[in-house]
Amino acid sequence: MTDHPFDVLVVGGAGVDTTVYVPELPLPYADTYAVPPVVDRIGNTGAGVALGCHALGLRVKFVDLIGDDPQGALIRDHLAARGVDFAHAPSEAGTRRSVLLVGPDGRRLSLFDPRAVPGQRMPRDLYLPALRSARHVHVSIVDFARHVYADIPDGTTVSTDLHDWDGENPHHEDFAYSSDVVFLSATKLGGRREEVMRAIAERGRASVVVCTDGAEGCHVLAEGKVRGFPAEPLPGPVADSNGAGDAFVSGFLYGRLADRPLEECVRLGAVAGAHACTSEGTHEDPIGLDALLGPVS
Question: Start and end of every Carbohydrate kinase PfkB domain (predicted)?
Fold first, then answer.
C-alpha cells in the first residue's frame, strides 16, 4: 500500500446525465408529455467508478478529457465537492452527455452523445504520473482511453467495463483483450453469453470475466469455469437503475484490492449495485464502506 499513492486510477468516462422521468417505457409517441422536473447530474461510467471507489475509502485518481462548458463545470464541481482527485484536459467537442428516460419501475433508456473526436488522444503527462503509482487501473471504453494500455506498467492490474457489448463490435476489442478483469452486461448476448465470455478470456489476458444480468444476478468466468451468482435484495424501494453497473464494479474492485475471495468480491459488487437502484440519479449516493460490508464483517 505505501508503495502506491493511489489504489485505483480511472481513465476516461465522465459526463452529464439529463434525467427525464417518464410514465412508461417504451414511451408511446405523443406530441408532448408533461414530466417531473428534468435534472442534470454527473454521470457516465468513469465518474461512477471513481465516485464509487472513493466512497469505499479507496485512494482514487480520475483523469479525463472534458469540455470547457457548463457540463464540464458541473463535473469538476461535483468531484471537487466529494474530494475526488480529478485531472483533466480540454476536449474540443465538449463534454459527453446522456439523456436518460427512466420509467416508474426504475428501468432506463439512455440516449448517449459521446462527443467523440476522431484520433483524439489524452496527453501523456496528464495520466503517466498516476499510472506509474497506482495499484490498479480501470479503463473506460472511450476511444482515446485505449491508447493508455501501452503505458501501463507490468504487474499493474487492469479492468474495464464493456457495458452492452454484442461480442462483435470492434470498438470494444482493445479493452476486452487487454484487461485482467472484464465486466460486461448480458443485454445483447442472448444465448451467446458464455461463448463471448470465454472468447474474452481466450483471446486476451482476462483471468476473470463478469457478465451482469440485472435482477437475475451475474455469471462469472474464472479458472475455466462459469458460475452463476444471485442478485442481492434491494435495501429499499427501486428508484432508478442508472449507475448500478458502475456501482457493481466499484464494490467488486474494493473486494479484489482487499484480497477477498472471488465469491466475496461478487457479493460486494451485487450489494453495491442493489444500493444504487434505490437512489435517484446515476451517481448521487454511492454506497459507503459500512453499508457495503454490513454485519458480516
Answer: 8-138, 191-284
Taking 80 as the threshold, does the pLDDT of residue 107 lie above it?
yes
Joined grid coordinates for residue 122: 489524452
Share of the chain above pLDDT 70, in %: 97
Instruction: Convert the pLDDT of each residue in 261-296 to its tens digit.
Output: 999 999 999 999 999 988 876 567 899 999 999 865
Question: The domain spanning residue 56 has which CATH number?
Answer: 3.40.1190.20
For residue range 251-263, what is the model confidence (pLDDT) as tens digits? 999 999 999 999 9
In a domain, 1, yes or no: no
- Reference 8, options 146, 173, 181, 143; nearest CA is 181
In a domain, 129, yes or no: yes
Is the distance from CB of 269 to CB of 293 less than 8 angstroms?
A: no
Total number of domains in the chain = 1
Instruction: Give the tens place of pLDDT for each residue, 73-95.
Output: 999 999 999 999 999 999 999 99
Q: How far apart (Å, rounded) are the C-alpha atoms in residues 252 and 140?
A: 16
Full-model pTM: 0.93
Identify which of 242, 248, 283 has the alpha carbon closest to the alpha carbon of residue 48.
283
Establish if 162 belongs to a structural domain: yes
Strand partners, 20: 101
Contacts of 21 (CB under 8 A, 6+ apart): 35, 36, 102, 103
Question: Whole domain around residue 110: which residue ranges?
Answer: 6-28+36-293
Give whole-number Cα distances, 185 to 81, 210, 235, in Å.
31, 8, 22
Residue 89's closest CA among 62, 129, 118, 49?
62
